[in-house]
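Worked Example 4.2. Consider the chain below.
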Amino acid sequence: MESHEVIREVLKKTSAKQVAADLQLSLSLIYKWAELPEGDAGSGANNPLDRVGQLIRSTQDTRIAQWVAEQAGGFYIRNPDNLPPNQPLIPMTNGIVQEFADMLATIAISSADSVITKDEAKKIRARWEELKSVTEGFVRAAEAGAFGPPKTEAKDGDKDGAKK
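Applying the procedure from the previous section yields the following structure tokens:
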């Protein structure tokens, strides 16, 4: 979804007049944010979402996305990069189970003395983020159809690999 579309959808449930008042901006500017930008043959204005995206691309610093996610009560998780196609299902599943076990072990070790220090909390957070990233990779691979039935090898010049 494009940024202006996100804003348009948000304004269906939120008063544009209230947003304008809260941000001390004109109502017309708020409405322009919900239109296709001028550069794309629309009459809209470059909106704050576009600016945040530009800032992230310019700096290559995901702390900006993390900060935005925190403002919404969430936490930013980077998608895994360059997932190889057609990964075997069982090893990927085992990887998720291992990451989960590692996270639980980190929690168990950290809480053994009934106190979790700030350093221990950071370790737990890091394991949790790794688990979420590995799981996201699994879900993306599943969505891409990477875990379909195995392809049979073609024999004797048979191009589709079907058995005769």
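DSSP finds seven helices and no strands in the chain. Helices lie at 3-13, 16-23, 27-33, 48-59, 63-71, 89-110, 118-143. Compare this with Example 4.1 before moving on.
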